[in-house]
């Protein structure tokens, strides 16, 4: 089977982290985002994966060579010379996606969920039509494009309503599809949108179905959602009794949903959790309080620091008795002084913060 992952552009929404690494290589729950997806695709029997990118593929080449070996898949870049939207990249990769009659998966690089590739492929085969999109139920459909089904049909899609004012349904496009290669004939090689052009034409011909996603879903393309997605992912691991989580019996684990790399060192009298991930070679001092945060590799949190709703970038240092909160994001190699307070600061790489940041702002 085949798949294409729409990686796209510069990852500006996830700055300052993406100033150092391309978004697919930023660790989500201690594993690059793209690795979660490649692993799930490979375990569903996918052998050919295309990454549609429009910048700097060379920074990802080495990591992807390792994944090719690790998961026994072929990975190819499809490089756009101009951004081609969400449908153009499929046409650009036609040589691979259209090389045989088997359907191919399409997924947005920012989406985390319990990827349902096997069940999705079975469902798609059963109805025998051109495409299936994964949908997820949301509480506030007015912020999204909502899927409306044909009357008296559980899965055939009639139309999409963008940001509906009155209630028409609560299922939204989850950014994961399975399509037959014939769909490529509907797409021209130009900047074009699969949601606004390709799907409506498929609906008109009665060729598009929806598949309900079980469990959590999140687009983790920006820091606030990256943190929320981490919480959902850790909760899902807890539900499945995953061995990846640090046992709740550890004295420092508070409230569960904690993932700590085995190489990290944790000081005395810490309270960690709920919803915390700590990457490789991180050193946490004594009496530190961490909740709802992500600490990336090689960082150092000094004694009695208090961190909540924060992403601590690689190789960063947080001083003694410092306090970070309210979706603060530290880029690579940032240093926060002792007793400094940061409220929603977005700190660019290699900066040293010695004064309080009282209101959310970008620190250049």
What would your notes on this structure say?
- With 364 residues, the chain is of the alpha/beta class.
- The chain contains 7 helices and 29 strands.
- The chain has helices at residues 33-43, 58-71, 88-92, 94-97, 117-127, 194-204, 223-239, and strands spanning 2-8, 27-28, 31-32, 48-53, 74-79, 104-108, 111-113, 131-137, 145-149, 157-162, 171-179, 208-212, 217-219, 258-260, 265-266, 271-272, 276-278, 283-284, 289-295, 300-301, 306-312, 317-318, 323-325, 328-330, 335-336, 341-343, 345-347, 352-353, 361-363.
- The strands form 6 sheets. Strands 14, 16, 17, 19, 21, 23, 24, 26, 27 and 29 form a 10-stranded parallel sheet that branches. The protein has a 7-stranded mixed sheet with strand order 5-4-1-6-11-8-12. A 6-stranded parallel sheet has the order 15-18-20-22-25-28, with no helix packed on it.
- Helix 2 (58-71) links the parallel strand 4 (48-53) and strand 5 (74-79).
């Amino acid at each position: 089977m085949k798949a294409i992952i729409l990686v796209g552009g510069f990852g500006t929404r996830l700055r300052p982290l993406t100033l150092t690494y391309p978004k697919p290589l930023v660790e989500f729950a201690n594993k690059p985002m793209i690795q979660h997806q490649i692993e799930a695709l490979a375990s569903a029997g996918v052998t050919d994966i295309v990454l549609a990118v429009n910048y700097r593929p060379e920074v990802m080449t080495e990591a992807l060579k390792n994944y090719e070996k690790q998961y026994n898949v072929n990975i190819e870049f499809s490089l756009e010379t101009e951004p081609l939207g969400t449908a153009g990249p499929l046409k650009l990769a036609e040589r691979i996606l259209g090389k045989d009659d088997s359907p191919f998966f399409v997924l947005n690089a920012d989406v985390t969920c319990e990827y349902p590739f096997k069940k999705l492929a079975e469902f798609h085969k059963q109805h025998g039509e051109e495409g299936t999109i994964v949908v997820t139920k949301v509480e506030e459909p007015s912020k999204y494009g909502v899927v409306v089904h044909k009357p008296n049909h559980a899965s055939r899609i009639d139309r999409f309503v963008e940001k509906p004012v009155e209630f028409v349904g609560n299922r939204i496009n989850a950014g994961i599809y399975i399509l037959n290669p014939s769909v490529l004939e509907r797409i021209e090689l130009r900047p074009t949108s699969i949601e606004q052009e390709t799907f409506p034409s498929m609906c008109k011909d009665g060729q598009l179905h929806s598949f309900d996603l079980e469990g959590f879903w999140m687009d983790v393309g920006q820091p606030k959602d990256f943190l929320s997605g981490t919480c959902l992912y850790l909760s899902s691991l807890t539900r499945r009794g995953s061995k990846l989580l640090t046992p709740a019996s550890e004295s420092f684990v508070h409230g569960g949903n904690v993932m700590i790399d085995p190489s990290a060192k944790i000081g005395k009298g810490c309270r960690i959790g709920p919803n915390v991930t700590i990457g490789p070679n991180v050193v946490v001092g004594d009496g530190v309080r961490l909740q709802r945060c992500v600490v990336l590799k090689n960082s150092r949190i000094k004694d009695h620091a208090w961190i909540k709703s924060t992403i601590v970038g690689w190789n960063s240092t947080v001083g003694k008795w410092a306090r970070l909160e309210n979706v603060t994001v530290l880029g690579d190699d940032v240093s926060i002084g002792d007793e400094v307070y940061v409220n929603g600061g977005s700190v660019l790489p290699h900066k040293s913060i010695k004064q309080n940041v009282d209101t959310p702002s970008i620190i250049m």
